[in-house]
Structure formats: structure tokens, C-alpha cells
Automatic annotation (TrEMBL):
PROSITE patterns: HTH_LUXR_2 (PS50043), RESPONSE_REGULATORY (PS50110). Signal peptide: none annotated. Keywords: DNA-binding, Phosphoprotein. This is Response regulatory domain-containing protein. One of its GO terms (molecular function) is DNA binding. Residues 10-125 form the Response regulatory domain. GO terms for biological process: phosphorelay signal transduction system; regulation of DNA-templated transcription. It comes from Candidatus Rhodoluna planktonica. The modification 4-aspartylphosphate is found at D59.
Length: 212
């Protein structure tokens, strides 16, 4: 891709891991983008004012202080025209990402492929009004869940009972049981005992999203 084809679009990379930050910066610079980097959300907020980027590539986890999701929320409120590509080690978007609008998602183990990274970034920048745009890999069962369903699945994985989940959600046990049933169906878990379903659902959640 030539420099002119990108019109020197400005990209702000927000990543606390130095090697990853340098890798992405080098890849984008070689593709003709104008790049600045930040190692924290606070640093990124200041650079956004000074650098005036067209898009941000933001890691979810930024060490101590505000997270990448906090940064996206803040900037979307003050600069709704910005595009965002959010990075994570998770195989599927966490619930916190699913609640965001106009945000693309890319698993971090894919950023070493320049074609995938550029495709994800261009998609984020060319579809600013898209409701949601993720993930850039083959969807799995967990990615089919809504943000609320993913939250409930997380509570199931934590070992909470239906009544405890209902209390957390400020709803009835019956409503919670119905939602969990829909979650099992989306995960392809049917015709098993309730206990076995919970074990299988927990396994899928942890294998996909880790223990968070």
C-alpha cells in the first residue's frame, strides 16, 4: 500500500507492552500511516489532543490505571468521529467490548500478519457507523452471545447458583433460568443434566476467555 493511498492517516497506538507497540508502529509506518504511540490511557488522552488521530489501536489491558475500554468510552464521548481497533488476547470479544459501538476487534496473536492488521484497521475506519464489527477470525460459540448473556455465562463460570445470579442481576430466578437455557442452546449444549451443562459451559467460557 502506498503512502498516498492512506492520505497520511494518523494512527495512535495505545499499548503498554513495548515489543508489541513497536511491532505495530513499524508495520503501520511501512504502510504509509503517520503513527504516534502511548503506553497508557492517560498518555493516550493527552496525545489525542496534540496529535489529532484518525483512529486508535487500543489494547484492553494497559497495566495500572484506566483500561483500554475506559479510554474508548472517554474518547467516544468527546470525539465520536474517531475509529477504534481494540486488541486483546481473548479469542472472542469480552462483554465490555460488545457493549461498545463502532469498535472493531482483533485478537493480538494476529497482529504480526500485516494483511490482517491493515484489513482490520481499514474496516474500522471505513465503517464508522457500524453498530459492532468483530471479530476478525472465525466466530466461535461464545462470540454468538449477547453482552448480557456473556455476563451471565461469566457468573455461571464463577460457580454462582441461579438464585445468586438472579440477585446480582436484580431479576427473578425464572428469568435467569430462561436466559441460561438460551445460553446453553447458543453454545450447542442440549439434552444433558443441568449440572453437566454448567460444567461444559464453564469449560467453554474459560477456554475461550480465560478466568477473567
Amino acid at each position: 500500500m502506498s503512502e498516498n493511498s492512506n492520505f497520511r492517516r494518523r494512527i495512535l497506538i495505545v499499548e503498554d507492552e513495548n515489543l508489541t507497540r513497536v511491532l505495530i508502529s513499524n508495520l503501520l509506518t511501512s504502510e504509509g500511516f503517520e503513527v504516534q504511540t502511548a503506553d497508557s490511557a492517560l498518555h493516550a488522552s493527552k496525545l489525542t489532543k496534540d496529535f489529532d488521530p484518525d483512529a486508535l489501536i487500543v489494547d484492553i489491558s494497559l497495566g495500572k490505571g484506566p483500561t483500554g475500554i475506559d479510554l474508548v468510552h472517554s474518547l467516544q464521548a468527546t470525539r465520536p468521529y474517531l475509529s477504534f481497533l481494540v486488541l486483546s488476547n481473548f479469542a472472542a470479544p469480552p462483554a465490555s467490548i460488545k457493549e461498545l459501538k463502532s469498535v472493531a476487534y482483533l485478537q493480538k496473536n494476529q497482529i504480526s500478519d500485516p494483511k490482517v492488521l491493515i484489513s482490520a484497521l481499514n474496516s474500522a475506519m471505513s465503517k464508522p457507523d457500524a453498530a459492532q464489527n468483530y471479530p476478525f477470525k472465525v466466530p466461535n460459540e461464545v462470540s454468538k452471545l449477547t453482552a448480557q448473556q456473556l455476563k451471565v455465562l461469566g457468573l455461571v463460570a464463577q460457580g454462582l447458583s441461579n438464585s445468586e445470579i438472579a440477585s446480582r442481576r436484580n431479576t427473578t430466578v425464572e428469568s435467569t433460568e430462561q436466559m441460561i437455557g438460551r445460553i446453553y442452546k447458543k453454545l450447542g449444549l442440549e439434552r444433558n443434566s443441568a449440572a453437566t451443562l454448567r460444567v461444559q459451559a464453564t469449560k467453554i467460557y474459560r477456554e475461550t476467555l480465560g478466568n477473567n
